[in-house]
Amino acid sequence: MPRPRRDELIARYNFAIDEFQIEALDALDRGDSVLVAAPTGSGKTLVAEYAIEAARRQGQRAFYTAPIKALSNQKFNDLVAHYGKSEVGLLTGDNSINPNAPILVMTTEVLRNMIYARSEALAMLSVVVLDEVHFLQDAYRGPVWEEVIIHLDPTVQLVCLSATVSNATEVTEWLSTVRGKTVPVVEEKRPVELINHFVVGDAATHEIKIFETIVNGSPNQEVSKLESTSSQTDTRTSEVATDIESSLCAQKAVTIIHAKSSRNRRPFATRRSLARDCFHIQSKPM
Q1: What's the rounded Cα separation, in Å, for the pair 38 and 84?
Q2: What is the mean pLDDT of the chain?
Q3: CATH architecture of 6-186
Q4: 6, 147, 176, 208: least surrounded by Cβ within 10 Å?
């Protein structure tokens, strides 16, 4: 079945598509895989939705993988809202919902297991979305992404998404080596401004107070005062804790010395030994 026209695939959107998204769609229409590296909120998901819609209209399957179950559940609900429950399934360690659906959302480990088991679910698979693909660099779970990328059928298109991968060109070169042509699409403009806040819990009122970290381009003076007060409090608390530990240690020394004196004639050796044991408490750095 021929690939649907682009205007049909993007008819659902009531906004203009950005240039980096068009670049990614062009690559997908040519049959290439893509790695989209763009800030959070810039519209990476549109590229994934485009690939999924194209596969669906061609009578093929599309998988959307995510690193954690919470994100998988979120994407499942998003896709169900658009396509309906009959068209979307979910496979995680906890849930198996409509596993024969043309669109399947799953954790990446589930797809890896499918590949090794030569699952029939991989039949008619056209595209796989690898969300949060920067997990490739994770020391523990990274091999799962590597195995999926290497062992997935070479005819399957990959749509790799990440907001934090910094070496997109290098990763894309590796992807092209193991899977065929993969196009890097990098967008550096951040459409959603990130504002840092400082959150403080008021012990007196049990309220949460939120302050902007930067005000008019300079550090918030209220936050600076709070940090200074907190630092002084921590110092006083450390001093009190050290005094209490030293006192308890001294009491312990006296108690044991008396006990030793009643059984043998080496109380001073015991005192010296306990003094060494207590020294590290009394000389703790603040």
Answers
A1: 29
A2: 82
A3: 3-Layer(aba) Sandwich (3.40)
A4: 208
